[in-house]
Amino acid sequence: MSINRNLRRLAAGAGAAVLAAGITATFGIAEASAAPANQSTDSGQWTFNRTISNATPSPGETITVTNNIRFNGGLAPTISAFKDIHPACLTYVTDSSRVNGKGVGTNAGDPTFVRMTGSWIRSAVDRNISYSVDYTVGANCARDVILMTGAGISANQGLGSETANAGPTLAVSKTSTQTTVAVSPAPQANKASTLTATVSNNATGTVEFSNNGSVLGTGNAINGTAVYGWTPTGADAGLPFSITAKYLGDATNAVSISPAQTGTVAAAPITPAAPANLAVTPNSVIAGNAVTVSGNAEAGSAVKVTAGDKSCTATADAAGTFHCNIVPTTPGTLTVTATATNIVGTSPVSAPVTVTVTPVPTGTAVITVDPASLTAGNPATISVVGADGGTHVTVKNGSATVCTATADANGTATCTWTPTAGNQTLTAELTVNGAATTITKTVTVETQGDGGSGGSLAGLFGSS
């Protein structure tokens, strides 16, 4: 009868540990409040009534095992030793053992049990005795696995007894985790988004990504980060999304699920419409002076403005506005148009506007540089306007010759220059009204990445 009762108690203790382990795995809880466990087991003529202060501890935690012992036979024997049997991943806390509340000589040399020795005389009226011992839970303990404890007693009259599975059991909790998920860029039909899960503890293992409860796929977490690529289909446009990441846990880390990232899948991008509301300021300019071209285009699109043989680029801002500068050098009426480009393609050409370019006044000359905002290492065009037609023009940067050119019939000479960063002084040696003339212009050249007119997409088309 006592054997069957012990088996039932053992099964109950194991079931409780399994339930605790299951709860831990489901919710990713590792440091729950202490959950004591108790089990009473008959061993020979003794009853071991054992309690573990926390049956679901975390690594690093200290737990106390208490064994209240009663002798059930006739003449009570003299006890010479107690044996507390424990999993090898528990480490005895030095000087923690007590018998009836008093310190006792203890041998903890074996990693699987602690032996307390002395002499304790029991009698017919004093059949009870108890001991307690503390352990530190090691990081090497298997997680969410049932670990058995037991006890033994040594006594004269051949009445010693040992039960290695006296219980109760314990199950070391996995470490709790927290998972978050980010989606970038915002979901758009037929456009890839990267789902990035971040798991605490630099955890490793598998992360499951879902949308509206349906699994999209998995990613392998490395140093706590897992990624998955998701491209919504055209049918997803206009539908809500709810992206979650579920970390599936590993040998030491518990399962956790991220809060959802929600929103609506945007429609697939299309080719932008032609830029609108094109305007030039001023609308009449002397050759060699800058004209600002502005207008409206799809937000974020790369805009190219073309004006005869000149062009400039800009990126439309969040409000869809853009502007850039051109420097016309040929007198006459200049037609200005613009196009916008996104990841799908390029828009039709905008409605044209015009700017009147008047000649440089007789007897004067100017140096112009296109683009107006210069970046080191990017080619630029230098134009000298106002020279006598057919005469030679020499352009220098400091004392170094940049180029020589012949002025056309309109009195304009051009050449290409790749500047370096800093303030640069350009000098043009030319002929004006038959007289040798020297003119200068100082320009500032930015380093790469310093920005300037047109932003980061300015180089998409170049300048001419």
By DSSP, the count of extended strands is 36
The CATH architecture category of the largest domain equals Sandwich
**In CATH terms, what is the fold-level topology of the largest domain?**
Immunoglobulin-like
The secondary structure category is: mainly beta
Termini separation: 101 Å
What's a quick, concise take on this entry?
The chain has 464 residues and is mainly β. 6% of the residues lie in helices and 48% in strands.
Key features of this structure:
4 domains; disordered C terminus; Immunoglobulin-like; 7-stranded antiparallel β-sheet; 464 residues; 5-stranded antiparallel β-sheet; mainly beta; 48% strand; 1 helix; 6% helix
Structure commentary:
The chain is mainly β and 464 residues long. The protein folds into four domains: 162 residues, Alpha-macroglobulin, receptor-binding domain (Immunoglobulin-like, Sandwich); 86 residues, Immunoglobulins (Immunoglobulin-like, Sandwich), CATH 2.60.40; 91 residues, Immunoglobulins (Immunoglobulin-like, Sandwich), CATH 2.60.40; 91 residues, Sandwich (Immunoglobulin-like), CATH 2.60.40. It is built from one helix and 36 strands. Strands 1, 2, 3, 5, 6, 7 and 10 form a seven-stranded antiparallel β-sheet that branches. The chain is rod-shaped, with a radius of gyration of 43 Å. The chain starts with a helix and ends in an 18-residue tail after the last strand.
